[in-house]
Write a structure and sequence with these properties.
- The complex is a heterodimer of chains A (168) and B (455).
- Chain A is built from five helices and five strands.
- By secondary structure, chain A is of the alpha/beta class.
- Chain A has a five-stranded parallel beta sheet with strand order 2-1-3-4-5, with helices on both faces.
- In chain A, helix 2 packs parallel to helix 5.
- The longest helix of chain A is centred in the N-terminal third of the chain and has 22 residues.
- Chain B contains 15 helices and 13 strands.
- In chain B, the strands form five sheets. Chain B has a three-stranded antiparallel beta sheet with strand order 1-2-3, with helices on one face. Chain B has a three-stranded antiparallel beta sheet with strand order 6-7-8, with no helix packed on it. Chain B has a three-stranded antiparallel beta sheet with strand order 11-12-13.
- The chains are: A alpha/beta (168), B alpha+beta (455).
- At the A-B interface, helix 1, strand 1, helix 3 and helix 4 of A face helix 6 and helix 7 of B.
């Protein structure tokens, strides 16, 4: 463990590249204060995959890595829809997943918002309509905000959270 | 013989059942009016998902099968509908009445069930696990998937190989490069072309980088599931850096659209600087993590998949290699000339799968140095010829099998067997004797794809 801590102290803060860092720095205060004002300091997100290729999930997981460290801004991914303010929805709303997505939405206490993530839930990915797909998501749920991209990069997701917070 | 895949195809008057073994490909024809085949599950238990899927897709009856439940078609799917038949052309379906699914469970005094999924407690793909429990101890687990079923096979019918590319590379995001290389090999066969050495090296470099990203992600998440989150912080930093490197080379963090027949340039020096840094970091990581006894206490002897069972269930990839099998599609003269060495372990537990991942990252580092070419050239393809083509690629999970049949330049049947499809079926073998709290750890040590499995 001593080896680890000495390395930890030497490493210091991680930076992606100067531009991303500058942008993060510029928006993090506003993000943090909006989360404080509108969600009492913590915005809880329940991520639901309704049939994605798993790249959107990988990018959401990347939000927790030391480069982005989303939790320091007061935004958390939670395990249960009952703890959530927002459902972050990725994927094509497959025939098999749609009833479960709607179930999860029902479990989120009001007030609640749905944010669609990536090209799939709005049917803008290269995938074409088949009998097994129920997208677009707006046919089933009220969508408060959409994050475009295939998949959206972590910094784009953070940027989109800011736009969403300003909007509501 | 090892079973690789088993699937059906609709011809004019008959259904053709294609069974792909490691040494040969068998074909059998059955009449369309009363299609019946014999099951292979007595000798190859992993044939059952292939056969249940065949029934869902085409209505082919599997005689003497011990399991006749639908696989892909879930509770609300209309009855007796076989959408992969050519006569089926609907693009929307309404929900039917709810018909409950009968899970495999173990009965007995005090034995209870735990249902997990399809939506899990983390940022993860959907799937269902049904556990039969005796207290903490798992007696049995059933894996139930296909929640993400998008009908990719049907979606691709009627497209040209090049129209299909954008969809194929998005079947499973974390294996995108592998899927693209499988597609590339089929295009090369259909266009009767040889790929120049530099292009092969460039593509192989990207595939090793994708493997590195996948393994690094797991090297963080596996210890995290054993309660050691410092490893996640360390490894997720490395996987983020690897993803940025992939973006630097291909312009996309997952390498979508990266494999083509165009010329590309590679900044060899920048790549070498990156690889040097990663090599130092992974060496540190290995020394550090090997020295944490409480972690290995959780890893050792957890979730054992004995070699005999790994063979019986036709497993591939990391799972097979960690159970002592020498199974790797990269084991050929081209890869060996670039430094490939097959990595395997004998203890067959979570620790083995963790160690194989570290070893494969180190081997990928060496190969990436050897694959680094200043650039590759553009290739002129010949006319695409009709026919039936097969390809095999070693993705970051294991052997990926793809088959495409072309008629008048259009796809008439697309089939892909993700390594996860066979490996998921062997997952339950690792559970008995372990406690349910170890399930996430065991599952993560295999890290299988849901999207590639469900299609």
């Amino acid at each position: 463990m001593i080896r680890f801590w000495s390395r930890r102290l030497k490493t210091g803060l991680l930076t992606e590249n100067p531009e991303v860092d500058a942008e993060l720095k510029a928006i993090q205060n506003e993000l943090k204060s909006l989360v404080a004002k509108k969600f009492a300091g913590s915005l809880a997100i329940r991520m639901v995959d309704s049939g994605s290729c798993n790249a959107c999930e990988a990018e959401c997981n990347a939000l927790s890595n030391p480069y982005y460290d989303l939790e320091r801004l007061g935004i958390y991914f939670v395990a249960s829809p009952r703890h959530a303010d927002v459902m972050l929805l990725s994927g094509l709303m497959t025939f098999n997943m749609t009833p479960h997505v709607l179930d999860a939405y029902k479990q989120i206490p009001a007030p609640k918002w749905v944010i669609t993530l990536g090209a799939c839930p709005v049917m803008e990915a290269p995938f074409e309509q088949t009998f097994a797909i129920k997208a677009p998501a707006e046919d089933h749920l009220p969508i408060a905000h959409h994050i475009p991209g295939c998949p959206p990069e972590p910094i784009e997701i953070i940027r989109a959270f800011l736009v969403f917070l300003r909007k509501i | 013989m090892r079973l690789i895949a088993r699937y059906a195809k609709e011809l004019e008057k008959v259904f053709e059942i294609v069974t792909v073994w490691d040494k040969e490909i068998q074909k059998e024809q059955v009449p369309k009016e009363d299609p019946r085949i014999a099951t292979l599950t007595r000798t190859h238990p992993a044939a059952i998902w292939f056969e249940r899927k065949m029934h869902d897709d085409f209505g082919i009856v599997i005689e003497d099968a011990f399991d006749n439940r639908p696989l892909v078609h879930q509770e609300r799917f209309p009855k007796a509908l076989h959408p992969l038949r050519k006569s089926f052309r609907e693009t929307t379906l309404e929900f039917d009445d709810y018909r409950p699914y009968k899970y495999e469970v173990i009965g007995g005094d005090g034995v209870f069930e735990v249902a997990v999924g399809p939506i899990h407690a983390g940022i993860i793909e959907p799937g269902h696990f049904q556990f039969s429990q005796a207290g903490e101890e798992m007696l049995h687990q059933e894996v139930r998937h296909f929640y993400k079923y998008r009908a990719i096979e049907k979606m691709l019918e009627g497209k040209t190989l090049f129209e299909a590319k954008a969809i194929i590379e998005r079947i499973s995001g974390n294996e995108s490069i592998a899927y693209q290389i499988a597609w590339r090999d089929i295009v090369l066969q259909a266009a009767q072309c040889e790929l120049p050495q530099s292009n092969r090296q460039y593509h192989a470099l990207l595939l090793e980088l994708e493997r590195t990203i996948h393994h690094l992600t797991d090297l963080g998440f596996i210890p995290n599931d054993a309660g050691f989150s410092a490893a996640l912080a360390f490894a997720s930093r490395l996987s983020e850096e690897a993803r940025c490197e992939l973006k630097k080379i291909t312009g996309h963090r997952f390498g979508f659209a990266a494999i083509d027949f165009e010329s590309h340039k590679l900044d060899k020096e920048a790549l070498t600087v990156y690889l040097d840094g990663l090599e130092e970091a992974i060496t540190f990581f290995e020394t550090w993590i090997t020295d944490i006894p409480s972690l290995w206490d959780r890893f050792d002897t957890t979730g054992i998949l004995k070699m005999k069972k790994a063979v019986k269930y036709d497993t591939v990839g990391i799972m097979a290699r960690a159970s002592g099998l020498s199974l790797d599609r990269r084991d050929d003269p081209f890869y060996r000339a670039h430094g490939f060495e097959l990595q395997s372990e004998k203890s067959a537990d979570v620790a083995a799968r963790f160690k194989v991942r570290i070893a494969e990252v180190k081997n990928a580092l060496l190969m990436m140095r050897n694959f680094a070419v200043p650039g590759c050239e553009s290739v002129t393809l010949g006319m695409v010829q009709d026919g039936e083509y097969f390809s095999f690629t070693e993705s970051s999970i294991g052997e990926l099998f793809m088959s495409i049949e072309l008629k008048e330049g259009l796809i008439t049947r697309f089939f892909v067997r993700d390594p996860s499809f066979v490996n998921w079926q062997a997952l339950h073998l690792m559970m008995p004797g372990n406690i349910i709290a170890d399930f996430p750890l065991i599952n993560k040590s295999c890290d299988l794809s849901y999207a590639g499995n469900d299609l």
